[in-house]
Write a structure and sequence with these properties.
With 543 residues, the protein is an alpha+beta fold. The protein is built from 14 helices and 16 strands.
């Protein structure tokens, strides 16, 4: 070995397959080998000399390693996609002021790890007892976190396949009127790529979509909202369950992010998970609705056949006793009349209560007449039963609310009223119902004692609160889940002197347009779409 000539830096660095750099004590580049220059996207070493490196010189236990003794550093160049480097750093024994770093590109490997973790986390979310809305929110978050996307949305179709609802999103600000503004853009002539994905049952990839939308006046109602997101390209992947379209997954890509086959495979896998959640929720909802319907009908039949008739008989006996008293016989007439009046009033009250119970057990039959009529009947029965003053204010277009949504909103309002009667010690309640900006809203406000949280009084957002007027239990959870089932939200505000207000906001669905008509020769006539950029359209995924 004594006769072997020493090899200098240039000879070793030039052929090293990994990146090699030397850093000074401030973490700036002193030397880089050709592999390092290429990994950093530079043309020559001189471009990087003196620039700060992304590598930490001291031990950083917060960095996640791909392999033992390795750390990972992100690199976000001014131009080009974000990269991740796994590296090892060692100080030079001959010069402690210098550090040698060897590193390699692990961007794809890290992406695979995050995607596997995202699929696993999504499977866990699907196995939990959360609502469909919370599950799809979790799926959207996993997509954004795994691939570093700017944003993601999951929209589902109703059972008729004609209406879309936004049920999960991440990266984008929650906006109740988003679907309403999207519908407005469509009416102005904007092309909705997600509708193409639904109709064609394949992913639609649109490079530089934000540039197209930004320059298209038809998208003006959403320019400000979509401009809040730092994004460039767009992909829409259909959700398919049992051979039918169940919704779409929309992915918003950050500038510089590439859309390759692996990315589309990952989005397809997550779309499959979301479709499974939608299908599972649909089957579970049908099973629950069937069981509830059968139980309501049985209870209503039993109440009508026994208790209602018995109470009616009590009323008849009371009337007969009143007649006897009116004859002036041995029983003092005034006492008999008073007794008859009391029994009659009691029987009427009990009868009203039982009718209210039957009404609450079978709200679906009432909501077929309309949400306003159903709530109005509930208000009347509650006032008769409790003496509570209830003011009902209804706006227009409530008759256009579909039956299933009307029943869920009815149930939410009924539970809110029940909580007021049971806990709030209120004297007056105001209920507001209406449709505004393509959104169904409801509020129940009382003048009671408000929430008493542990440690004080205040606001309980999104149904999170504790105290004497509301419970964490089944009722409040069910109210929130009913709202989330339709992509809506529930807020609770309370004060010691201002009572409690429950507000529910549920965006109404966007109707999917009918397929374009056919020419006499049988070919579909497709409306002229918004022109795409000059870059060629990618081939359909899977072709």
């Amino acid at each position: 070995m004594s006769g072997t000539p020493l090899i200098g830096w240039d000879e070793v660095a030039a052929v090293a397959p990994d990146g090699l750099v030397v850093l000074d004590r401030t973490g700036r580049f002193v030397r880089l080998n050709p592999a390092a220059v290429a990994l950093f996207g530079a043309a020559e070493e001189a471009e990087l000399l003196g620039e700060p490196a992304p590598f930490a010189l001291a031990e950083d236990h917060s960095a996640h390693a791909v392999h033992p003794d390795e750390r990972v550093a992100p690199w976000a160049p001014a131009d080009g996609p974000r990269r991740e480097f796994a590296y090892r750093a060692r100080g030079l024994r001959t010069d402690p002021a210098l550090t040698v770093v060897s590193f390699r590109d692990v961007t794809d490997e890290r992406h695979r790890q995050r995607r596997i973790a995202a699929l696993a986390q999504t499977s866990i979310a699907l196995a939990s007892e959360g609502s469909l809305g919370s599950t799809l929110e979790a799926v959207a978050r996993q997509i954004v976190q795994a691939d570093g996307l700017a944003g993601a949305q999951i929209l589902i179709l109703d059972s008729t396949g004609r209406e879309l609802r936004l049920m999960g999103s991440a990266g984008l600000r929650h906006w109740d009127v988003f679907l309403d503004r999207l519908l407005e853009c469509r009416d102005r002539g904007a092309r909705l790529c997600m509708l193409d994905a639904l109709r064609e049952r394949r992913p639609i990839v649109v490079p530089h979509r934000w540039a197209q939308i930004r320059e298209d006046p038809a998208w003006e109602p959403l320019h400000t909202y979509l401009g809040e997101l730092n994004w460039d390209s767009f992909v829409s992947v259909p959700l398919t369950a049992r051979g039918r379209a169940a919704g779409v997954l929309n992915a918003y890509f950050a500038p510089g992010q590439e859309i390759g086959g692996r990315t589309l495979d990952f989005l397809a896998g997550m779309a499959e998970q979301a479709a499974f959640a939608v299908d599972h929720a649909t089957l579970l909802q049908r099973e629950r609705e069937g069981a509830r319907r059968n139980e309501r009908q049985r209870l209503a039949r039993d109440l009508h056949d026994s208790i209602v008739q018995q109470v009616f008989s009590i009323g008849m006996q009371a009337n007969a006793l009143g007649v006897l008293g009116a004859r002036g016989e041995a029983v003092p007439a005034d006492s008999v009349r008073a007794f008859a009046g009391e029994v009659g009033a009691l029987s009427r009250t009990v009868l009203a209560d039982l009718r209210a119970m039957v009404h609450e057990l079978r709200p679906s039959s009432s909501t077929r007449l309309g949400l306003e009529e159903a709530v109005s009947a509930l208000v009347t029965s509650t006032e008769n039963r409790t003496g509570l003053g209830i003011r009902l204010l209804c706006g227009r277009e409530l008759d256009a609310v579909e039956e299933d949504l009307a029943e869920d909103m009815y149930r939410i309002v009924a539970e809110a009223i029940h909580n007021v009667v049971k806990h709030a010690e209120a004297t007056a309640v105001t209920i507001r119902l209406g449709v505004h900006d393509h959104t169904l809203t409801a509020s129940v406000r009382d003048d009671g004692r408000g929430l008493v949280a542990s440690g004080g009084r205040g606001t309980a957002p999104q149904g999170e609160g504790d105290g004497q007027a509301w419970e964490h239990g089944y009722g409040l959870t069910t109210m929130r889940e009913r709202a989330e089932r339709w992509g809506g939200t529930m807020r609770i505000r309370s004060g010691a002197r201002s009572g409690t207000t429950v507000r529910i906001v549920i965006p109404l669905p966007v109707r999917v347009p009918e397929p374009p008509p056919s020419d006499p020769d049988g070919h579909r006539r497709t409306p002229r779409a918004v022109p795409l950029s000059e870059t060629p359209q990618p081939a359909p995924y899977g072709s």
